[in-house]
Every structure is written in structure tokens, then in C-alpha cells.
Amino acid sequence: MSGSSAEPETEAFLAYRNLLFTVAYEMLGSATDAEDVLQETWLQWVKANREQVRDQRAFLIRITTRQALNRLRTIKRRREAYVGCWLPEPLLTAPDVAEDVELAESVSMALMLVLETLSPTERAVFVLREVFVVDYAEIAAVVGKSPAAVRQIAHRARRHVDARRPRQPASPDEGRAVMESFRSAVATGNPQALLEVLAPQAVLTSDGGGVKHAALRPVTGAGRVARLLAGGMGRLEGTIITTEPAVVNGNPALLVRLDGEIDGVMAIAVEDGRIAGLYYVRNPEKLSRVTSATPLTLH
């Protein structure tokens, strides 16, 4: 990106940068791809005749969404060849994101995986309407549909997501308390302690990207998950394992280190005071964002 912060086009873009990044990230599930989309958005923005732009925010969202849609259709094919389970690229986020319950849910690992089951157009409509409250006419201009068609797509996407999203997202305080209990159970490697914090039908999904060891399919059931976690720690005898609490994708998570080196990120989804979902990202290509010194504010 060129130009000084004093230039009007730069100031306008930077004012909405975090918003545009969030739109692209929720569309793509990849911070790396989202950054590429922002670069493409910037290039189109500096070429635009801004005297004809009545609403800068709407204009920039429109460019970003169209770029993300183009990229989404490409990376969906790439993900079909992905080794094992695919999880979104985790983001280290500022604590205030967790306090915004709706935003925290929208970027959570659990909901991002649900969004993966939508078509590209459904995903764009859902993100713009449900997360950013963009009006139907503006969304129609973005996706090339009529407002009436967009309303139908939004209804269909909302119904699909509602059937699969967590019933009642945990409050920030509840999430932190459950994570602390889980962290203690992991530290001891005690299967019984793990069972007490896991929901009966808890699901563990791990993503190694074919580079690091990970289960090729989700592991379901508290007993199986507890045994896998306890057994995995036992196989690392002689290795110093440390866990550090963090806020990842607006929700509680653990940064897991082996002998001081980052091994992965373990995020959780909490329902009724227990962990219903565990998401362990070990693919090294997806971990650069959680080692960043500056957590992101996604507003």
C-alpha cells in the first residue's frame, strides 16, 4: 500500500480496514487470503473516482466482498484436496472482541466451520446481512441478484446456519472459567478430569495440514476425546509441554508449546458449562497470526 496517512484515500481506507478484513476473513476463513483481498481492494480503491462514491463504507465493502467471492470459489477447490480436517486460520484477537458476543460468535471456529457448508453466494449474503447488517439492495448489487432473491438466499442461509450453530453461546466469563478447568485437566493428563469438563458428545477436530500429525476425521464422544488427549500427552514424555491462555477468534483458547516452540492452537466451544467442541490447529502455515505481538481488533 502506497501513500502517506495524510492522503484522503489512505485515511478513508485505513478507517475501514479492520471492518474490511473481518468481512474477507469471515468469507474465506483464512487471514492470509483476507490480506490478499484487502490488497486487491486497495488497488481498486485508489483507481476509483471517489467524487462519485456517495458511501465509502458501502463501496469498500462491495469491492472486498466481490474480491472475496472470486477467491472463495478458487480456494474451495483447493480445500477439496486438503489432507485431513480443515480448520480456519486462527486469529489472536483483542479481549474486547470477546465482550462483543455477536462478533465473537461470528468469528468463532464453530460458526466459521458452519459457514464452510454454505455456497459462496449464501456465505456472502449471510455474512453481509447477519453480521454487518447490510441492506438487501446493497447486497443485491454485490452478488448480482435481485433484492427479492437475496431475501430468499438470506432466509435459506440463516435457517441452515441456525440448525448447526451452538444453541446458546457461552458468556465471556463462563468461557474463561471452562477453559481454565480444561487447562488444568490437560496439565494433569487425567482422563477423569477431562471427562468432567467435556460434554458427553464433545467433538475434537484437529488440523495438521498433512505436515503435522492430526486425526484425519473428527473424534466424537467425551471418552474418546479424553483418552486421545491424555494419551497424546503421555506419548510426549521428556518434552516440556506448556499452555498459555489466549483469546483466539474472539473466544477462549490455549497456545500449546512443546519445549518452548509453538505447536498449535486449541480453541473451544462451550455449551451448558461444558466443552462441546475442540479445535486444534497444528498446521504451521496457519500459526503466524497467533504469534503476532499485536492482537487484532476486528471491529
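Next protein, fold it too.
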Amino acid sequence: MKKVLSVFSVAALSLSLVLAGCGGKTEGQQGAADQGGTAAPNARIGMVTDVGGVNDNSFNQSAWEGLQKLQKDLNLPQENVSYLQSTSDADYIPNLTQFVKDQWNLTWGIGFLMGDHVKKVASENPDAKLAIIDAEVDAPNVESVLFKEHEGSFLVGVVAAKMSKTKKVGFVGGMEIPVIKRFEAGFEAGVKAVDPSIQVVKVYTAAFDKPDQGKSTASQMYDQGVDIIFHASGATGDGVFNEAKARKAKGQQIWVIGVDKDQSLTFGDDITLTSMVKRVDEAVYRVSKDVIDGNFKGGIVWLGLKENGVGLADTSSKNVPEDVLKEVEEYKQKIVNGEIKVPETPQQ
């Protein structure tokens, strides 16, 4: 039976992120069943990226930033947090295995595509502790962190619907996998909740690491009259921003909605309308610190609007008017209260 961990409140999540570890003994690589133990101030935490790479301006980068913050906050040696970059799915098991065999205290797999690989390595190494973002792995020595992307995407769908001048908006997805389908479903539901007549153009590029494909896809969408594109495509989305920047320079009034991180910090406020932030960095920080404190639990954690796991970027007010943000907040409260149930799969 799967063990599901409940995250009760924003306060509880925040508290777990900032508590400092106690005790001074170093924790060895213990069995997953050992839930207690002393803190491990010299713990080593490793991370394996998916093919998007650690500089994807998206969830891989956010995960790495979470580990870097952990290292600084706990004053760990810099070499005690590290990552291995995957250039193809053939790298996943060798990279995961390298950290496990070297007895790192926790090994992260970042991304849905690594789910089966984490499962295999975990089952072959029951004394190792692993964690994964965006995939559900049913194993006692794995903690799976998943996000309710559809809830956050609903909110940026509301923004897109309120801000579109052409009544035509776009969604660019990477691979057609459940996590990206949640982005698509929530976004379209948010758009339609505001105005059912708005057209949502949807294209999947089948890649998370192809900026050129993102650029050409965005170009086609903008040519069709789309004036706002929401992307959930990792580094492929860099190309969406590049195309938008080129068109904006020529005076075209178009926007991009970023994903995972506040992408206005990378690509600028002039083209980034808002971003649907997934707090991957905070989740990686929290679970990693649990291991260091001897509190590894394993199981499955879901983070949505109620848990402050997803939401709009803090910089949204730069381009989104106050009245629109107020309406977004009203929708958010309805979702949190259960008045609106956001679909997890696109409606046919």
C-alpha cells in the first residue's frame, strides 16, 4: 500500500524549510526503515538531472538552487552537494547508481522521465535513500514529490484570458506525459472559466531540450494570431522567449507566461507576463534536510495551492493589473476551498 504524506499548511511547510538541524554526529548510509538517527552535518546530497540539464531555466535549475541554498544554510562543504547531468535517458541509471554506490545520503532524480529508473535503482539498493520530483515511485526508500500543476496553471489561464487582445492564446508543451498534461488541462480550464469563446492553440514539441523547436513553434502560433503563450517545455521554452523577444523588438504586442521558476528574472519583464511557479527548490530543500535531520519518511507528497506548492510569481504585479490579480485571488480561494475542482487531464 502506498504511503501518502499530508502537508497540512503553508506554515508547516515553511517551518520545515527553515528549521536548523541539531546534534553533531554524522549519519551513515542507513536502511530506509531507520526513520530516526542523529543529524548528519556532513551529509552528501546528490542530484541527477533529466535531459534538460541543470541550466534549463526550469525545474532542474530550481532543484539545484534548492540544494545550493541547503549547503549554504547548513554550512556544508561545497563538494557535499553535487549533480550529474544526463544527456539522454541512457545516463539515468548510471548517474543514479554512481551516487548510491558512493553512499551519498540522498540521491535525487529530477523529472517524470526518471521514474522507472529511480524505481529500479531503489529496489536494487534497499539501504539507499532516494527522492524524485514529478513522478510517483512506490518504494519504502523513495520519497516522491508531486505538484498540482493544474491548479497553478488554472490561475495563469485566468490571467491569459483577461489579458489577451486577440482572444487566442497558446500552450506549448514538451513531451506528452501526465505532468505536462496537468499544465495543459489547468491552463485551458482557467481560460475557459473566464471566457469560453477564447481559442486555446496547443502544440507539443516532444522535447524538453530543443530551444529551436520552441522558437519555431512560437513563431507559428504568433503568426496565427496568438498573443500570449504559456509554455511547459523546459529548455525548449527558451526558444519561445527568444521568438517573443524578437517580435517585441519589432513592436508586436505579445507575451510569454513562464513556468516552474519566475522566468521574468531570466528573460525580462518586457516579454514575461507572469510565471506559474512550482516550488521545486523548496521541496528539494525540505526533503534533503529531513534526511540530514534523520527524519526521512519515504512515501508521496502532493503540493498544490493550499500548500503553497504552486502559484503565480511574486513579480506578476509588474505586468498584470491589480483588478486581474484580485480576480485570480478569488479563483485561488475557490480552488483551495473546494468550490472549483481543476481537471488534471485535458477535456475532450
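About the second fold: The two ends are 32 Å apart (CA to CA).
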